[in-house]
Design a protein that fits this description.
8 strands; alpha/beta; 8-stranded mixed sheet
Length: about 325
């Protein structure tokens, strides 16, 4: 569809994997339908390629009943296989020349596509090639009623090279890199691993802070801790898979598989003495004060300790095979 942004116009395919996220997904899709363009010279149009990853919350039935409200959305489904497989299916079905990845709990502003377009055009003029992608801003919020009211916080900063929260990239580079590795079936790293392969192809990152997405998640509560711990252990396992594919010092640092991380989180957690049981009263006190985000940042002390232990356990298991 259309020429790439090297030609006259760009046609976007916004690929969104979703799994049991219907309430926030509705806000995500409505924001994408409300896009406004200040300069249509470079935009031919866009589609939203939604891939349902085996949801059990009636997502597909709801979308079918409301399809008239979402003219840009094309829906696909798969058995639950994780976001890497869902994004790959989305890319395969995409009709656009430029893919935008966002998550289904991201609510964007009305200038979102225009901002990515402007950055793509500027990037092309600057680099004289399309060997780059644009990376928008992601602001974390737990305000469900009005997610886009959240101000930018220092904790929203990301040093990631390629993360699928808010990124636009020519489709042919994804295909040349080999798309996402479906081996990443647990939580974490599938996007950063693809990022390593894109970097090896010589792609550059161009920041696009005007393309803002608000990443919604419920306010932190003690009930979330078991799930968060499980995610950190999964992230440890997937981190080792990442390292197996790219055994470099850079990846070791990213997945926290170094003596430095072991020492850091070991000391900060008092070798595991500061954990979900011993810290619960303090975390609950902060939550009661109306500071759930601060409570979560402090909980990261023991969450990171679980992550580091998960990395080393998975690595030892790999070595013994």
């Amino acid at each position: 569809m259309g020429n790439s942004f090297f030609g006259e116009t760009v046609f976007f395919s916004i690929v969104i994997p979703t799994y049991n996220r219907l309430p926030i997904l509705e806000k995500c899709l409505r924001a994408l339908e409300g896009q406004e363009f200040s300069n249509k010279n470079y935009i031919q149009g866009y589609e939203v390629v939604l891939v349902d990853d085996g949801s059990t919350d009636d997502t597909l039935n709801w979308l079918a009943a409301h399809k008239d409200e979402f003219p840009h959305v094309r829906c696909f489904e798969q058995d639950h296989a994780g976001p890497a497989a869902a994004r790959n299916l989305g890319v395969e079905k995409a009709q656009g020349d430029t893919i935008i990845f966002i998550d289904s709990d991201l609510v964007v502003l009305s200038n979102f596509l225009q901002a990515h377009t402007n950055a793509l055009v500027k990037g092309k003029e600057k680099l004289k090639s399309d060997r780059f992608f644009t990376y928008g801003a992601v602001i974390n919020t737990c305000n469900f009623a009005n997610p886009t009211a959240e101000p930018y916080k220092i904790t929203d900063f990301s040093a990631a090279f390629f993360a699928t929260g808010n990124v636009a990239i020519p489709k042919h580079w994804l295909e040349e890199a080999g798309l996402f590795d479906n081996g990443f079936q647990l939580y974490g790293w599938e996007d950063l691993e693809l990022g390593v392969r894109l970097k090896n192809l010589g792609l550059q990152l161009i920041k696009c802070p005007e393309a803002v997405g608000y990443h919604w998640h419920p306010a932190f509560s003690l009930q979330q801790i078991p799930k968060l711990i499980d995610q950190e252990i999964q992230r440890g396992r997937m981190g080792v898979l990442f390292y197996q594919k790219h055994p470099t010092w850079e990846v070791k640092m990213m997945i926290q598989m170094t003596w430095f991380h072991r020492l850091l989180w070991g000391i900060l957690s008092l070798n595991g003495l500061l954990n979900e049981r011993t810290m619960s009263p303090f975390l609950q006190w902060l939550i009661n004060l109306g500071k759930p985000q601060l409570a979560l940042e402090i909980a990261r002390i023991f969450l990171n300790w679980y992550n580091v232990k998960g990395v080393y356990a998975a690595y030892a298991e790999m070595q013994s095979k």
